[in-house]
């Protein structure tokens, strides 16, 4: 009965998400709307970030990414405008809010990073070892520029990852198991920090997965991390979480990493994405 209730709740959230799809909003407007809807120490913990969001440095990274996206590159001298991120070749509006998802041409559930790698290799002809593909982190990497641009086209769109294919459901369910599984020398799970309101790491208020307005900000990556002075991706954040739990590091593009991102995103279903975000 509990499983049926969860499935019905996800279905209802999905319908709400579909109704909201197609409405781009500036990241600061999305965040302010969430703050207006709920009292949250997590959403309001940094006045400085709120002041800076209108001039978020990640916007410059996104602009560089737009140039790269449209530029003919690689051995095949083609642009990424033929890459299908789930809504058809070159269609980016709202696409990121519906990732991870199953792709027929690969037979896999893919997140943004793995789909981007696939298109850079198969369409543009890059080798997986080429720096354009292999370098995944930092403002100067092609990956962060491209990911930030692609994701920015979903700001304000409701998270709505499809759950139509059996592998999409399997990935999401595996991610849920991982979220609650305690392991490592500290015996931590993701839920240790993110299942109750009011928890902190030092001065930082942590988001509660069970508060949708908080969780949508928590999973809104790429984001400019002020403490790093860099734009970071979802895969980078996931790796950082596992490091903080003192567990084995995740491998970007692995089934485990995508399963966790599938669960993260599904848990934010129906809430508007803040892209790119700014975080402490």
Report on this structure:
Keywords: Electron transport, Heme, Iron, Metal-binding, Periplasm, Signal, Transferase, Transport. Belongs to the SoxA family. Residues 64-157 form the Cytochrome c domain. Heterodimer of SoxA and SoxX. The chain has one domain: Cytochrome c-like domain (Cytochrome Bc1 Complex, Chain D, domain 2, Orthogonal Bundle). Helix content is 45%, strand content 7%. It has 12 helices and 7 strands. The protein is mainly alpha-helical and 280 residues long. It has helices spanning 2-20, 27-37, 47-52, 58-70, 112-122, 131-134, 142-152, 166-180, 190-194, 212-218, 234-244, 255-267; strands spanning 101-103, 108-110, 200-201, 204-205, 223-225, 230-232, 277-279. The protein is globular and about 50 Å long. The model is unreliable at 10-21 (pLDDT under 50). A 3-stranded mixed beta sheet has the order 6-5-7.
Uncertain runs with pLDDT below 50, 5 residues or more? 10-21
Total domain units: 1
Strand/helix succession: HHHHEEHHHHHEEHEEHHE
Broad shape: globular
Q: What structural class results from the helix and strand content?
A: mainly alpha
Number of helices: 12
Report the biggest beta sheet as strand number plus sense, adding barrel if it closes.
3 strands, mixed
> Rg from C-alpha positions?
18 Å
**CATH architecture field:** Orthogonal Bundle
Approximately how much helix is present in the residues?
Answer: 40-55%
CATH class: Mainly Alpha
Strand content: 5-15%
Q: Can you count the beta strands?
A: 7
CATH topology: Cytochrome Bc1 Complex, Chain D, domain 2
Distance between the termini: 40 Å
Biggest sheet, strands in spatial order? 6-5-7
Tell me the CATH superfamily: Cytochrome c-like domain
Mean pLDDT: 91
Subcellular location: Periplasm
Subunit structure: Heterodimer of SoxA and SoxX.
EC number: 2.8.5.2
Family: Belongs to the SoxA family.
């Amino acid at each position: 009965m509990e499983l049926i209730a969860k499935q019905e709740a996800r279905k209802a959230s999905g319908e709400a998400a579909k109704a909201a799809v197609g409405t781009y909003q500036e990241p600061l407007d999305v965040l302010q709307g969430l703050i207006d809807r709920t009292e949250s120490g997590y959403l309001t913990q940094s006045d400085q970030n709120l002041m800076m969001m209108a001039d978020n440095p990640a916007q410059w990274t996104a602009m560089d990414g737009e140039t790269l996206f449209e530029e003919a590159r690689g051995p095949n001298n083609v642009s990424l405008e033929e890459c299908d991120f789930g809504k058809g070749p070159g269609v980016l509006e709202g696409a990121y809010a519906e990732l991870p998802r199953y792709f027929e041409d690969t037979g896999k559930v893919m997140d943004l990073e793995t789909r981007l790698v696939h298109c850079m290799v198969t369409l543009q002809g890059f080798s997986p070892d080429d720096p354009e593909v292999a370098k995944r982190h930092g403002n100067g990497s092609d990956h962060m520029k491209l990911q930030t641009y692609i994701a920015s086209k979903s700001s304000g769109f409701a998270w709505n990852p499809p759950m139509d294919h059996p592998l999409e459901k399997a990935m999401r369910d595996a991610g849920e198991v991982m979220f609650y599984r305690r392991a490592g020398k500290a015996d931590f799970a993701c839920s240790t920090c993110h299942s109750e309101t009011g928890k902190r790491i030092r001065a930082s208020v942590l988001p509660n997965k069970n508060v949708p307005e908080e969780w949508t900000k928590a999973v809104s990556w790429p984001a400019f991390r002020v403490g790093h002075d860099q734009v970071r991706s979802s895969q980078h954040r996931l790796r950082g979480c596992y490091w903080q739990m003192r567990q084995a590091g995740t491998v970007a593009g692995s089934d485990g990493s995508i399963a966790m991102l599938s669960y993260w995103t599904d848990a934010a279903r129906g809430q508007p994405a803040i892209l790119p975000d700014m975080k402490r």
